[in-house]
């Protein structure tokens, strides 16, 4: 587990991924909004095929971090490395072109369109100037099946008729269709019931099992320990701890989130492996 001695201290470089080079690396990222310094020298690695949980209290810098990665806000200092090469995103489209998809809490789905239309929105295949509806339906159905989404009655039902968990499934499937290499999910289980939450967490694990990197922003520590391979904790714009989820417990995460430090140690023998740590 990597930590800093205090919130004001520069965090140590993130540890290297056990799977080789990280998919995305943030080096010394600093972001200011006028007199407010939202992020200070953030070092972070996101490996492929793993779920990284980004935790922190309100105002910790989680939203600024993901929006910087997504190309909405360029950093004032530091650099982003994508697949080992420095990148400068001048907008979300450039980030998406590299394979980064961000699913915000509003999901950005069109309620008046059906599932297939949403999954292909802006990327509709055509043949002789006409929409290739058959190809769209086949691809949409196949993608949902590969993600083991079984609760949707018809791929032609309007998105407005879907539950929160089903809408998340469609948003994730849309990212898969776009061949995303990194999927950022902002509070994906907020306001969901128990069964819908279980569905979304299973979907997150399935994404990682397919080699996709997943960055999950969540206040729900039960969700974090259910799916995360790694945990990154922000406090007042500083990265105060990161490492494998086995090196944390809920109490230590709360300590870091609320004070920027923790004196607690984890008894590894006493911490059961979560569903996200099987295999």
Describe the structure.
The chain has 279 residues and is of the alpha/beta class. It is built from eight helices and 13 strands. A seven-stranded mixed β-sheet has the order 1-13-12-4-11-10-7, with helices on both faces. Strands 3-2-5-6 form a four-stranded antiparallel β-sheet, with helices on one face. The two termini are 21 Å apart. The model is unreliable at 8-19 and 267-279 (pLDDT under 50).
Largest sheet: 7 strands, mixed
Kindly report the spatial arrangement of strands forming the biggest sheet: 1-13-12-4-11-10-7
Termini separation comes to 21 Å
Catalogue the unreliable spans.
8-19, 267-279
User: Which structural class matches the secondary elements?
Assistant: alpha/beta
Q: How many separate helices?
A: 8
Report the mean per-residue pLDDT as an integer: 87
What is the succession of H and E elements?
Answer: EEEEHEEHEHEEHHEHEHEEH
Helix content: 25-40%
Beta-strand percentage?
Answer: 15-25%
Coarse morphology: globular
Number of strands: 13
Radius of gyration in whole Å, from Cα? 19 Å
What order do the helices and strands come in, and which of them pair?
Layout: E1 2-3, E2 24-33, E3 36-46, E4 51-55, H1 62-69, E5 77-82, E6 85-87, H2 92-98, E7 100-103, H3 115-119, E8 126-127, E9 130-131, H4 133-146, H5 164-177, E10 182-186, H6 194-209, E11 213-217, H7 221-227, E12 230-235, E13 238-244, H8 250-259
Parallel strand pairs: 4-11, 4-12, 7-10, 10-11
Antiparallel strand pairs: 1-13, 2-3, 2-5, 5-6, 8-9, 12-13
Helix pairs in contact: 4-5, 5-6
């Amino acid at each position: 587990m990597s930590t800093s001695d205090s919130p004001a201290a520069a965090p140590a470089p993130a540890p290297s991924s056990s799977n080789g080079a990280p998919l995305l690396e943030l080096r010394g990222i600093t972001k200011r909004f006028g007199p407010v310094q939202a992020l200070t020298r953030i070092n972070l690695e996101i490996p492929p095929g793993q779920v990284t949980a980004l935790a922190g209290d309100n105002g910790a810098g989680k939203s600024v971090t993901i929006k910087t990665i997504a190309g909405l806000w360029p950093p004032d200092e530091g650099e982003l490395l994508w697949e080992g090469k420095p990148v400068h995103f001048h907008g979300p489209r450039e980030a998406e072109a590299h394979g980064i998809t961000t699913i915000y809490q509003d999901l950005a789905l069109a309620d008046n369109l059906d599932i297939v239309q949403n999954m292909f929105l802006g990327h509709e295949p055509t043949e002789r100037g006409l929409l290739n509806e058959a190809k769209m339906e086949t691809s949409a159905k196949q993608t949902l099946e590969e993600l083991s989404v079984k609760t949707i009655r018809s791929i032609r039902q309007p998105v407005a008729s879907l539950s929160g968990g089903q809408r998340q499934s469609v948003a994730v499937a849309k990212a898969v269709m776009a061949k995303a290499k990194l999927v950022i999910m902002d509070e994906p289980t907020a306001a969901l019931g128990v069964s819908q939450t279980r569905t979304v967490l299973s979907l997150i694990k399935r994404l990682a099992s397919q080699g996709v990197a997943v960055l999950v922003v969540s206040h729900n520590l039960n969700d974090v320990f259910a799916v995360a391979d790694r945990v990154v904790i922000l406090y007042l714009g500083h990265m105060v701890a990161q490492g494998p989820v086995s090196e944390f417990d809920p109490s230590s995460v709360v300590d870091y989130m609320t004070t920027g430090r923790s004196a607690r140690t984890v008894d590894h023998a006493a911490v059961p492996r979560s569903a996200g740590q099987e295999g």
